[in-house]
Amino acid sequence: MALPILCGSFSLHPVSTGAAMHNAGYRALGLDWHYVPFAVTNIAEAVDAMRTLGLRGAGISYPFKESVMPLLDAIDDDAATMGAVNTIVNTDGHLVGYNTDWIGGARALQEATTLRNKRVLVLGAGGAARAVATGLSREGAVLTIVNRTYEKAQALASAVHARAAYLDAVDLDAIDIVVNATSVGMSGVSDALPLDPSRLSANHIAMDIVYKPLRTPWLLAASARGATIIGGERMLLHQAAAQFALYTRREAPLAAMAAALTSLQ
Ligand code: ATR
C-alpha cells in the first residue's frame, strides 16, 4: 500500500494560508498528500528532519529564505539569482531549492494585462519588492522603484535593470501599473496609504502584495478612483500554485486553491 505523502512549511511564525491552499489542491486532485505548517527555530535541524522523514516538499518563510540555501544539495538558477529560496523539493533525499515568489506577482498581473513594455511603479525595496520586480522585469515591464529608504530603491533598481526615483517626482500619467510591495496597509502594521490615491485614474492598474485585509485601504481608494485592482491574495495563490506543480508534477487546481484562501478571510 502506498504511504501518504507529506509536505510542509518551515517558518518562525507559521500561518495557515499555505496549508489551506495546498491541502485543497490535493483534495481537488484526489491525492493522498498532506501539508503541515511547522514552527521552526533551527532551520538546519528542520532540513535534517525533512531528509530523515522523507517530506516531499517544504515552503520556506521568514526568516530562513537565505540561511536555508547552504543546507541544500542544489539551488535552481532563478533562486540563485534571487539570492533566496522559498521552496525545497526532496527527490529521494536530494534537496533542491527553488524560488516561486517572483512568479506570483507577474502571474497575478497577467490575469488583467500583458506586461511587455508596461510602465510599472514598484513601491518598496524589501524582499517582497525584489521578488515582484524580478518577475515583472523578466516579463519585459519597464520598472521605476521608489522606497522610503532611497538607497535601497537604488540597490534594487540596479539589480533588476530598473530606475530608482523619489515618489513625488514620478509622473503617474506615465505609469500603467502601481504595485504596493511595502507592508503599508497590512492589518496590525499600518493603515496608512503607500501612495496618494488621488494620483490614480481609471487608466491605472493598482496591485497590492498585502492580503490581510483582502482589500487594503489603498486598493479600496484606488478602486473608487476607477483603477483596476488586484489583491495580494492572487500573488500568494500563484506562488503557491508554482510550488504545488514542483511538488506534485501536476498542474495546480487554481480554483480550488483560491476558494480555500478566500474562505480563510
Ligand atoms: P518584505 O520581505 O515583506 O518585503 P522588508 O524586507 O522588511 O519586508 O521590506 C518592507 C518594505 O516596506 C520596505 O520597502 C520598507 O521600506 P524601508 O526600506 O524604508 O524600510 C517598506 N515599509 C515598511 N513600513 C513602511 C512605512 N511605514 N512607510 C513606507 N514604507 C514602509
How far do the termini sit from each other?
38 Å
Tell me the CATH superfamily of the largest domain.
Answer: NAD(P)-binding Rossmann-like Domain
Sequence of strands across the biggest β-sheet: 2-1-3-5-6-4
Backbone CA Rg: 19 Å
Give me the secondary-structure category.
alpha/beta
Kindly report the CATH topology of the largest domain. Rossmann fold
Shape estimate: globular
CATH architectural label of the largest domain: 3-Layer(aba) Sandwich
- Summarize the main sheet: 6 strands, mixed
In short:
The chain has 265 residues and is α/β, with parallel strands linked by helices. It is built from 9 helices and 12 strands.
Secondary-structure map with pairings?
Elements: E1 5-11, H1 17-29, E2 33-39, H2 43-53, E3 57-60, E4 74-75, H3 77-82, E5 87-91, E6 94-98, H4 101-110, E7 119-123, H5 127-138, E8 142-146, H6 150-159, E9 163-164, E10 177-180, E11 205-208, H7 217-224, E12 228-230, H8 232-248, H9 254-263
Parallel strand pairs: 1-2, 1-3, 4-6, 7-8, 7-10, 8-9, 10-11, 11-12
Antiparallel strand pairs: 3-5, 5-6
Helix pairs in contact: 1-8, 1-9, 4-5, 4-8, 8-9
The structure holds 2'-monophosphoadenosine-5'-diphosphate.
Write structural notes for this entry.
This protein folds into two domains: 5-99 and 235-263, Rossmann fold (3-Layer(aba) Sandwich); 103-230, NAD(P)-binding Rossmann-like Domain (Rossmann fold). 37% of the residues lie in helices and 20% in strands. The chain contains nine helices and twelve strands. Helix 6 (150-159) links the parallel strand 8 (142-146) and strand 9 (163-164). The chain is globular and about 60 Å long. The mean pLDDT is 96. Bound molecules: 2'-monophosphoadenosine-5'-diphosphate (ATR). 2'-monophosphoadenosine-5'-diphosphate is lined by residues 124-129, 147-149, 152, 182-184, 190.
